[in-house]
């Protein structure tokens, strides 16, 4: 009888979770300010808690963190924003020229090898390869433009997110208290353990990947500036943002830089490719393991599988969220199995 009741409870919880997930997916377009606000609050909460442990009231701790963050943002943007705006203006002005120049390079390459005596099958392979390069050029330019337009269209949500994050930070203790009061007493130890594991995964995925992305974006911008590649800051920001996608992010982020460098000279494109390779190796051998460690707990093959599934289902958003959702799903599944086997009160002893 007890097992039947427990099975019914689990079934109800699963149905409720699926219904909630379906509703959130249905209204996902209006949730991005809250998602950004939650991520901001999650990233800033350790600093707020640190000041709170130093006997500073939570409200003042949040205000101090916001002032420090705003000051850093103002100081950095006083240099970065003018440069970024200038690069965007130049990019928009030179975009037709870049496309025309890319087409002329492809046509020149086609005319050179078509006049040779190479076998027909080899020439056909070259034609297919150049067609793919041309498509990659178009997709790269289109992707950059779409990304910039999306940032502009979501400007209102981006502006309101810090306000929502402030309330998340300020009311987090009260929200936790009310949440735990709504949980049956015998379930609370297991729920606390569950949320602790969730927090560990989010720490590894969100804080770790954001930190790595900032470092990679900085290294790419500096490296491209040294190599005198056009739009170095713009490409660095794009590469840093895309770096949150495991494995594929580095390749996707390198594509615009290599393409733009190739329009200037093949030698410069080779240098840019070597730069991205060096940064990727540094990230994989030093930066990533030191920051992320093994907190996510997913095998690389599993990560690639969920990236492919996420990209197929949700496009770029699926690539970004595929691995975090898979890691969270692993935690949920593990605790659900424990719930089926053990009594709720014993979950904390596992």
TrEMBL record:
Belongs to which family?
A: Belongs to the autoinducer-2 exporter (AI-2E) (TC 2.A.86) family.
Give GO BP annotations, semicolon-separated: transmembrane transport
> Any idea which UniProt keywords this protein has?
Cell membrane, Membrane, Transmembrane, Transmembrane helix, Transport
- Keyword Cell membrane included in the entry's annotation: yes
Topology with regard to the membrane?
A: Multi-pass membrane protein
The record ties this protein, via Pfam families, to: AI-2E_transport (PF01594)
Report what the protein is called.
Answer: Permease
The organism named in the record is Anaerosporomusa subterranea
**Segments traversing the membrane:** 7-25, 31-51, 63-85, 151-170, 210-238, 304-328
Localization, UniProt: Cell membrane
Can you quote a single GO CC term?
plasma membrane
């Amino acid at each position: 009888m007890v097992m039947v009741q427990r099975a019914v409870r689990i079934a109800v919880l699963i149905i409720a979770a699926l219904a909630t997930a379906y509703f959130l997916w249905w209204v996902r377009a209006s949730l991005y300010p809250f998602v950004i606000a939650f991520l901001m609050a999650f990233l800033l909460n350790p600093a707020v808690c640190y000041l709170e442990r130093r006997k500073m009231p939570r409200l003042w701790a949040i205000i101090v963190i916001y002032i420090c963050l705003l000051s850093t943002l103002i100081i950095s943007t006083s240099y970065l924003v003018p440069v970024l705006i200038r690069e965007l203006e130049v990019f928009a002005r030179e975009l037709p020229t870049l496309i025309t120049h890319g087409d002329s390079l492809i046509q020149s390459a086609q005319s050179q090898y078509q006049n040779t005596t190479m076998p027909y099958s080899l020439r056909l392979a070259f034609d297919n390869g150049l067609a793919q390069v041309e498509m990659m050029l178009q997709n790269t330019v289109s992707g950059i433009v779409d990304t910039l337009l999306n940032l502009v269209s979501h400007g209102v949500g981006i502006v309101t997110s810090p306000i929502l994050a402030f309330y998340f930070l300020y009311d987090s203790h009260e929200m936790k208290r009310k949440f735990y009061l709504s949980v049956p007493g015998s379930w609370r130890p297991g729920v606390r353990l569950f949320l602790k594991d969730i927090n560990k995964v989010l720490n590894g995925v969100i804080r770790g990947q954001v930190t790595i992305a900032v470092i990679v974006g900085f290294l790419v911008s500096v490296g491209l500036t040294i190599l005198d590649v056009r739009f170095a800051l713009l490409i660095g920001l794009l590469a840093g943002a895309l770096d949150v996608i495991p494995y594929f992010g580095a390749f996707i982020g390198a594509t615009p830089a290599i393409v733009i460098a190739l329009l200037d000279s093949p030698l410069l494109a080779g240098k840019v490719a070597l730069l991205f390779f060096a940064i990727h190796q540094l990230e994989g051998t030093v930066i990533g393991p030191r920051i992320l460690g093994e907190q996510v707990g997913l095998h690389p093959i599993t990560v690639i599988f969920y990236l492919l599934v996420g990209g197929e289902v949700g496009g770029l958003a699926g690539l970004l969220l595929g691995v975090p959702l898979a890691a969270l799903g692993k935690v949920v599944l593990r605790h659900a199995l424990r719930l089926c086997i053990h009594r709720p009160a014993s979950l904390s002893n596992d």
